[in-house]
Amino acid sequence: MRHRFLPPLGPALMLAALLLPGCIGLRTYGEDRVRDLSDVIDVRYGTGFGLGASVQLGPAFSTGLGCSPEWYTREWFGRKSVEVDDGLFAGGLLVSYDGDYVRRRGESAWVRRGDSTTGSFSVLIFTINTGRGGPFAGDAAWFEEPAGSPPLFTAMRMGGTVYLPGVNGGLYWNIGETLDFFCGLVTYDPMHDDGYPKFFTPGAPAPVLAPASIPDSASLSDSAPPSSP
Fold it and tell me: Are 79 and 143 in contact (CB under 8 A)?
């Protein structure tokens, strides 16, 4: 009778155990690189009723022409998107503002302070709301909490938005996220966004599990059966 040769089971299991972490690491690396590539182009869309266009060249230069209320806006900054209600775009080339900047400023200090999230205010195409900037790179507060100020690294982008009656939309080439993609090829993550999914809801409350009740000694003694005489 002919016997088939069967490899020993022990060495096969050891080989699988050695290769499994590498396969998992390769899969994680691939997912992070695909997400980094998706961050290179930022998308903006929303609703409103107006007519105009705006242009941004990096975090320091922006201008626009036209006017439109922004009833709803969703804008991506690399890995994260920010949603704004009741914004306003108004541009006269030399002076323009956009987003929630005016609404957050109050009656008298809106030019002096500039600590809005994604809104912008520019004079002579220079963006002067310097207080809006977040940290240089992404951190837990930016990725895990709603709104917030975009990090300087992901604000390095160029593109524009067009405002039409009923809708508005824009595209931006994110230079900082492009650099993050190429650095990620050699496993360096300057934006600190590896591990974060592209579509998620920051600030979503985690489910809270009620702790199991532990009976105290008194209740145990009360519930214990009487001892036999």
Answer: yes
Q: What is the DSSP letter of 132?
A: G
Confidence at 149, pLDDT banded by 50, 70, 90: confident
Q: Which amino acid is at 200?
A: F
Q: Which residues pair with 89 in a beta bridge?
A: 68
Question: What are the angstrom distances between the C-alpha of 162 and each of 11, 52, 81?
Answer: 63, 6, 19
Output the six-digit token pair for 24: 């998992």
Return the DSSP state at 193: -
CB 34 within 8 A of CB 15: no
Contact 101, 121 (CB under 8 A): yes
CA distance 213 to 229: 33
- The pTM is what? 0.70
**Residue 57 bridge partners (DSSP):** 61, 158
- Between CA 151 and CA 135 the distance in angstroms is 5
Considering only the C-alpha atoms of the chain, give the largest distance between any 2 of them, rounded to a whole number of Å.
98
Query: How far, in Å, CA of 166 to CA of 160, rounded?
Result: 18
Under DSSP, the state recorded for 127 is E
- How far apart (Å, rounded) are the C-alpha atoms in residues 89 and 70? 7
Phi, psi values for residue 172, rounded to 5°? -140, 135
Residues 6+ apart with CB under 8 A from 180: 36, 39, 78, 153, 189, 190, 191, 193
Which residues share a beta bridge with 161? 54, 170
Neighbouring C-beta atoms of residue 66, cutoff 10 Å: 16
Residue 111: predicted pLDDT? 39
